[in-house]
Amino acid sequence: MAIPVYIFCGFLESGKTTLIQTTLKDEGFNEGEKTLLLVFEEGIEEYDSKFLKETNTDVEYFDDLSQLNTDILRELDNKYTPDRVMVEFNGTWNIDDFLDIEMPLDWIVVQILSTIDASTFTNYINNMRTFMFNVINPADVIVFNRCDEDTKKAYLRTNVKSINKGAQIIYEMKDGTISPMTDEEMPFDLRADVIEINDDDYGLWYMDALDNARKYDGKTVVIQGRVMRRMEDPDDIYVIGRKAMVCCAEDTQLIGYMVKSKHAEQMVDGDWLQLKAKMHVVYDEEYRGEVPMLEEISYKRIPPLKEELVYFS
Predict the structure, then answer these.
(1) Are 129 and 157 in contact (CB under 8 A)?
(2) Can you say whether residue 268 is alpha, beta or left, with left for phi > 0 and alpha for psi between -120 and 50 degrees?
(3) CATH number of the domain that 302 lies in?
(4) Between vectors from CA 312 to CA 309 and to CA 313, what angle results, nearest 5°?
(5) How far apart are CA 7 and CA 139, in angstroms?
(6) CATH at 32
(7) SS in 3 state form for the chain?
(8) Does the first or last residue of the chain, that is N or C, have fewer Cβ atoms within 10 Å of its Cβ?
(9) What's the CA gap between 102 and 5, in Å, rounded?
(10) For residue 237, what are the domain limits?
(11) Residues 163 and 50 in one domain
């Protein structure tokens, strides 16, 4: 059986230990499975024996990455027989050096999470960009913690996306609550007469419109996407969307909205369009709720986008 490996990156005191402790205490994540925790950095927060016992966790500490190799990983696997492995990695090291170590056959890296202190991000990105690149570039999830009301989420997002387009971004307030982006912080102007959705922002717009359909009712948008024709749709309907990764690069699906158009029968499955449309709210029986529908205003055919996959933050 595969043993998932979760890697937590970030600078010293960026919140890695706290995130690991919170994750292991989460009943939705931890139902008593055995966890092996490899720690390459000891910060102010430590793992006490009570916590380790309560979460069924064994911990091994390392001062240097040179102390670790394939044979040692196999010995740890045999010694602890873990159900999963969590790694608290030193943010000043290159994670590729760890990933290059041949792991036991059933160990599979499933997620890399990076923690960043939002209050020090500007100073770090301006003065330690190489180190920040090493934290941001490999991450599947980036947690900006210690956010407050003055935190400029759009600024944080722009800097992250310039390095790693695919990263999911989470904004955590000082009290530990999660703070989504407000309308004012979105990378597109919801007050504009015509809302232009950049290619990199399609996923964010798609999810926000799905969750808040009424907010977009009557709005005019410009998007780019691929046409999908479905046998069950009426003659005046086609779907426009983009591909999104479901769980891996080999498992993608088209996410999009139906378009009402007098040109629908002229559309060919796989066509790429730039579409200008007015958004309306309709009830979808399959979704069991209100969803957006697009009413075509104008369109033009375009070449396929170089980056078809979309991301949701």
Answers:
(1) no
(2) beta
(3) 2.40.50.200
(4) 125
(5) 9
(6) 3.40.50.300
(7) CCEEEEEEECCCCCCHHHHHHHHHHCCCCCCCCCEEEEECCCCCCCCCHHHHHHCCEEEEECCCHHHCCHHHHHHHHHHHCCCEEEEECCCCCCHHHHHCCCCCCCEEEEEEEEEEEHHHHHHHHHHCHHHHHHHHCCCCEEEEEEECCCCCHHHHHHHHHHHCCCCEEEEEECCCCECCCCHHHCCCCCCCCEEECCHHHHHHHHHHHHHCHHHHCCCEEEEEEEEECCCCCCCCEEEEEEEEEEEECCEEEEEEEEEECCCHHHCCCCCEEEEEEEEEEEEECCCCEEEEEEEEEEEEECCCCCCCEECCC
(8) N
(9) 13
(10) 187-310
(11) yes
Distances (CA, A) of 188 to 140, 182, 196, 221: 24, 11, 7, 10
Provide the residue-wise pLDDT of the chain in tens; the chain has 313 residues: 899 999 999 987 888 999 999 999 999 999 999 999 999 976 556 788 999 999 999 999 998 888 899 999 999 999 999 999 999 998 888 899 999 999 999 999 999 999 999 999 999 888 888 888 989 999 999 999 999 999 999 889 888 888 888 888 999 999 989 998 888 889 999 999 999 999 989 989 998 998 899 999 999 999 999 999 988 889 999 999 998 875 555 667 888 999 999 999 999 999 999 999 999 999 988 777 899 999 999 999 999 998 888 877 7
Tokens 């943010």, residue located: 91
**Number of residues in the chain:** 313
Give me the torsion for CA of 49, 53, 58, 61, rounded to 10°: -20
